[in-house]
Amino acid sequence: MEFPNRLLHNNKAAASSLTSETERIMHLYVKILKGNECEIAVSPSHRISEVKDILAMQISIPTDEQKLVFKGKTLVDDKRLSEYNITDGSKLFLVPQRGGSTTSTPCTPVKSPSSHFDTAKSTAPLWDKLYQFLKRHFTPQDAEKVLNEFQKDFEKGLSSMSLDDIERLAQSKLLRNSSSGACSNNTMR
């Protein structure tokens, strides 16, 4: 008789520790692509859909226009935060999606959260310079073909990168530029 009682007691202790684990509050940081970063308080037992509801209230982006990413993985609405090993202080990325529901409620301005990165517009000077360079080595028709293939490869490579990869790449380039600037200042003296 003692054995089932001990087993029952151990199960209660395990259940209470599980409950306390899922009920604790943790703070997550959400970086909005091309926007600000905000902080939300949730528990590990929250579903991704509930996190999106909290974000919709806080930043006025409808839940069906939100894509949440953690460590390069898109988070699925019906899973819980704990299933992704998201812990206190973790950083999620929010990618606003266009073409979701068209609501007439205006979004709270948060440093252009719904604007998307348009590589064609923002990299036009790069493509122009590259085309000018290629024309020196190829016929104009061949230079255009090479440029088009390069643009396709560039877009493919960029779209396969996670937001973490892009952030690491940008940080490494910024650090390299700032250290090369310091070196050039020293050599000028």
TrEMBL record:
<dbReference type="Pfam" id="PF17840">
    <property type="entry name" value="Tugs"/>
</dbReference>
<keyword id="KW-0963">Cytoplasm</keyword>
<protein>
    <recommendedName>
        <fullName>Ubiquitin-like domain-containing protein</fullName>
    </recommendedName>
</protein>
<dbReference type="InterPro" id="IPR029071">
    <property type="entry name" value="Ubiquitin-like_domsf"/>
</dbReference>
<dbReference type="InterPro" id="IPR019956">
    <property type="entry name" value="Ubiquitin_dom"/>
</dbReference>
<dbReference type="InterPro" id="IPR047154">
    <property type="entry name" value="UBL4A-like"/>
</dbReference>
<dbReference type="Pfam" id="PF00240">
    <property type="entry name" value="ubiquitin"/>
</dbReference>
<dbReference type="InterPro" id="IPR041421">
    <property type="entry name" value="Ubl4_C_TUGS"/>
</dbReference>
<dbReference type="InterPro" id="IPR000626">
    <property type="entry name" value="Ubiquitin-like_dom"/>
</dbReference>
<feature type="domain" description="Ubiquitin-like">
    <location>
        <begin position="26"/>
        <end position="101"/>
    </location>
</feature>
